[in-house]
Design brief:
Elements (H helix, E strand, L loop, with lengths): L2 H17 L2 H9 L19 E5 L2 H13 L3 E5 L10 H7 L2 E4 L9 H4 L6 E5 L8 H10 L2 E6 L14 E3 L4
């Protein structure tokens, strides 16, 4: 598998893992209890949801193709707003999902982490340095962000204490 395909595969895995409530399912399994996701608590289907894929290259194209196959609304944006249909911050403010797949993606500082709609999810399979970890912790703790799948998080990071965070296998 090429580097771009491996990164794309990890990003897709992260999206599906979070979207289908696998973190909660794994916790319930470890606690030897049945997790019943009734209609009102069941994860929303990805069809029709908006995903912003941040970064360029083969990985972004592969993730975009997969998301389109799930009937998601897809936008791809690299660092340069000139190659995006709208400025990154405008796209981010509408995104129910943000998938960061390449190091040319715009950095998520505290201001940007607050832009997505409440309950959005973040998948980062690029550099951990693209995300302000302190702001990400606050957003995930408060429910501003529902969940995250993150690469390259330090072993002693407070993010590792949150039950709504999973860690990517890529570094």
């Amino acid at each position: 598998m090429s580097g771009g395909n491996a990164v794309a595969g990890e990003g897709i895995a992260g999206l599906l893992f979070l979207a289908r409530a696998f973190p909660q399912r794994l916790i319930a399994q470890r606690e030897h209890r049945w997790l019943q996701l009734r209609r009102e608590k069941a994860p929303a289907d990805l069809e029709g949801q908006t995903v912003l894929i941040a970064g360029g290259g083969a990985a972004a194209a592969a993730v975009a193709d997969f998301a389109r196959a799930l009937a998601m609304q897809v936008t791809v944006a690299a660092r340069d707003d000139a190659h995006s249909p709208e400025p990154f911050d405008v796209l981010l403010a509408r995104a129910q999902w943000l998938l960061i797949v390449a190091d040319d993606a715009p950095r998520l500082d505290a201001r940007r982490i607050a832009l997505p709609p409440r309950g959005a999810g973040v998948v980062n399979v690029a550099s951990a340095g693209l995300i302000d970890a302190t702001a990400m912790f606050a957003a995930l703790s408060s429910g501003q962000l529902a969940n995250a799948y993150l690469a390259g998080i330090a072993p002693d990071s407070p993010l590792r204490t949150l039950s709504n965070v999973m860690f990517a296998a890529v570094q």
